[in-house]
Structures
1.
Amino acid sequence: MKISRTALERPTALPGPYHGFFSFPVSKGGYSGVAVYADSRAAIPIKAEEGLTGMLQPKPPLSPEERVSSTSSYTDPEEFDFFPEEDGSTPPDFTTAGIDFEGRTLVVDFGLFVLINVYCPAETSDSRLSFKMNFHRLLEKRVRSLIAEGREVILVGDINIAATPLDHGEGSLASRQIGFYEHPPRAWYKSFLEPDGPMIDAVRRYHPGREGMYTCWSTLLSARGSNYGSRIDYILITKGLLPWLKFGDIQADVLGSDHCPVYIDLHDEIVLASGETRTLKSAMGVDPQTPRDPPRICAKFWDEFSGKQMLVSAFFTKKKEAANVAIDAASEPDLVRVPSVLVIDSGMSESATKKLEMVEPSSTPSQKALGKRKQSEPTSVKVKKKPSEKEKPAKKAKMTAGQTQLSSFFTQPSRAKKTLSNVSASRQDKSRSTSQSAVPTPPETYGSPTAAIQEIIELDSDNDTHPPSSSQAPLGGSQLSEAEQLEADLAFARSLAEEDAMAANSTPVKGKTDASAWKSLLAPLEAPLCTVHKEPSKRFIVNKAGPNKGKAFYVCSRPVGPGYDKGRAERLREEVNPMYRCDFFKWASDAKREAKRAI
């Protein structure tokens, strides 16, 4: 678990009835670490310690009785065969090698067996190979010394090695099978497992030929969906525990990590060769009648969880203070007080509480009382009176055309909608309104009730302020009849309506124009098609430190799998599987440049 001790909270360190044991890195906080949780109702450890060398000690150091093994059982660095570094040199001792300084091991004695929980180093670079091999060799030394003491061992955790080609995502490829065990960590692991070594792969024992039984997947490649992973998490046991072993498996459907859980079940009781029945609890030394305390390195004995040390969070927590409320009912008998804070336990006497509840309201409070109420009630309720029609504020004046709209850069200027108060408007006024229509209409008028009102053509109006137009003047000085006047008005109205309809059809809607303009400017770049599958690629961003950090790129969107195309330098052409990701790669900047050229 990648967390530091200072960041570990009590619910995580001691969840319910479980005893927690932890090992953290000495200097790299949150870099690595392991934990063991033991249910106190079923199993209480007898002894526990950190590391493989016996050098990591609490304060005060563990006594000989508290140690899992005797002092002579720990590996002597002078007798240890160190794996050489890149330059050919070897560390002189365990301190220089730093094997126990990354919080990678917990050793817990449960009586029936000794549990070793490990997080073995990964070979992230050639320089880490020496550290990884020295850790594995020291782990084997520790296991063999416990077996020599007559102890049974259960080794659990992330070994960071695929034991066989069956445990590797590309183990089915011929190029991977050739020389698979020539790699030093795999060669060591093969010699550590049966039949060559002392440990048994408990889970594989129940699924000897099962394919795809992986426990870890790359999150960078999104490989879990296609089950392109490896089996690097194990539960190994010594032969003496086989009678207790009931079943083992992985839980690949449990999400939340790039690893999945691995488990084994033990029988609650077994029948020995002598015919005697022995229970698991008795074999582990669990006696419900006389419970014992866990080992001293258990988290329940840490100063921060045992009440000996104040936590940092205590300095940032507000203290609960009792509310002091004083009421003078005699001086203000008619004042109604509504407390702004609900007091759960203020420490007030019963009589004072009754004073809060039994104050009667007054229909005409005095000015003095009102003044005091303002001082004593910081949070009062104010009811705003709904303004009448006369009190309503005047509507804001329409905005005049000012700043140029974005749409004006992409469309030709449109004629503004005509506003008529009467069909008797003069031709001169009509031409004037047409010349003024080049001014863009403010955004507020589009779709507003005011704009809709301006569309109405009033055929009859008693408030005509315009002089009669020439079209309405009597021909030859004679007066038209009422029917003829009405027919002329209707014809003129139809002509204006047709002109407005033509203008509306030719002029795009402002809102749609703006949207299309912004869309053309800010539309996301379409993903380029990969070269093999001709499918839209997937966009990623470089997070690794370096000159390309933050840059976006595109790769094939298909999932990775056995034989996916890593490129000619890393994948044989005859082993490429076209079902999975091809080797398409393109920087987003290049894709954008190509898209601009195509426009």
2.
Amino acid sequence: MPTTVHTTERIAALRRLMQDDSVDVYVVGSADEHGSEYIASCDERRAFISGFDGSAGTALITPSSAFLFTDGRYFLQAAAQLDANWELMRVGVKDVPTWQEWIEKHSQKQENLRVGIDPRLISASDAESLTKNNTKVELVTIRTNLVDVVWGNQRPARPSNVVWQLPEDVAGEGHVSKLKRVRDALDGKGLVLSALDEIAWLFNLRGTDIDYNPVFFSYAIIDAQEAVLFLQGAEQLTLEGVRIEPYSSFWTYLEDWAKKGPVLLPPSTSLAVSSIVPPLPTPAARSIVGDLKAIKNSTECAGFRASHVRDGAALVKYFAWLEEKLASSSPINEYDAALQLESYRAALPHFKGLSFPTISSTGPNAAIIHYSPPTTDSSVIEKEHIYLCDSGAQYIDGTTDVTRTFYFGSSPVQEEVKRAFTRVLQGHIAIDTAVFPEGTTGFVIDSWARRALWSDGLDYRHGTGHGVGHYLNVHEGPHGIGTRIAFNGTPLKEGMTVSNEPGYYKENAYGIRIENVVLVVPKIPKDKAFGDKPFFGFERLTMCPIGRALIDVGLLESSEIRWVDEYHREVKEKVRPLLEGDERAVSWLERECAPLGA
């Protein structure tokens, strides 16, 4: 289990700085100045001040209290890591406010609530939401981040690693062509980009400034005349049609450039950038580059298919090895097992690293949705407990993300566990087999993944699916499958990749999740469909057996049994040729892919 971090001295030091600036509330979010979900260690401010190191959450500190707001993926982890200085705010639970709602409510209790923020670390839209129709909230922009002051010389240095160009035969399109498409969409306006994955995609560049994400610290400015890329180590790179400037010169350049004419800002743009750029009458609802990046071209789709088959071979080798290890009663802990899985992947062609920290979890730890085993004193994997492994890799031709839940024990599986697993499987199948008309969003189909669980009074506190980048961030927008209303703004389109990962988690007992990455593909052409519009469905990319020992076949419809058998036939056909010479892996694959009735 995660361990508690003691924060008394840190919070006391922060409160002294707040008093110097006459601030009533100080906001510490998760993101860096580029709005990144995964961040470099130098930007882990919320983790430093609170002790909670999950990827999503916001801390509010007042002179007498401290609150940590996070969603259902992290309730158990945050409860374990926060010390007595903090109150955990379980967002999504009835009557628990978001951090913005908390500020709104408490602003009504006094004449003027001074809210301290770092303008580079809060989006313009979030800042506006705090003050819109509320004259009692005063935003106090503090350019020297107060957490950084408390952190002092213990704060890690900002990475500045080598940036390299992704070959066009891997990307499927050159950066000059991408720039033209962006300019066509801008229709004469300028554009400021700060999202690192959007910049990496647009210029066909990759880096290693942030662990697990092949991106690099950068900004970009684009208009009809020029494209300017601001990055560290600017002298190392030349690109056709692109002017490259030092990362540190962005802010000065922006102030002069913004005066030229209308500028489009993506919704995630920071308050610091938007305060320099004159606002448009109608702000952008989504990022132009984000929308283009989400639609994978034929080369990227081919890379996804190939990389997922190779990845499946590594997974089969790993699970076969782990089963044999547990059967021999040789103790293996969660962290060491994750390293073994990484070694299988690292031996594959085109491997560039993991796409996120491996969630290798046994028994009660599997109930922590985004659990990460500690490097020391990690729990020993128990053969008679459920084992959940959520993992992924970066390959130069694609990014993988897969979750499997297995039972390697010899004792009968508890009926409760088997039933819950089967309900999760039914939800997974419902998404995989979905057919839907053009214009359908992931918000609309999310309930299809939950229907079987709901029939037993079960559910899960996370989305059903997220977009996946092509040798880029494992979490990619703007689309997804989930209950967040934001997912209703982006229809699922041909060429989008998205995960399919329903689950169920029983606190202090076990966790279940089944995750594949799927590709949106045409199913029914518009000339044969109602309303003269095409219908879409999903193509499975992930190739790894599903834990048959946990399936209650009696709960499945005949069509669902056929789905499992057909999927396993496909897995066996594609993965087995990559296992030549590994008799253990071949034997395990053959057994796990046998028909359910066998």
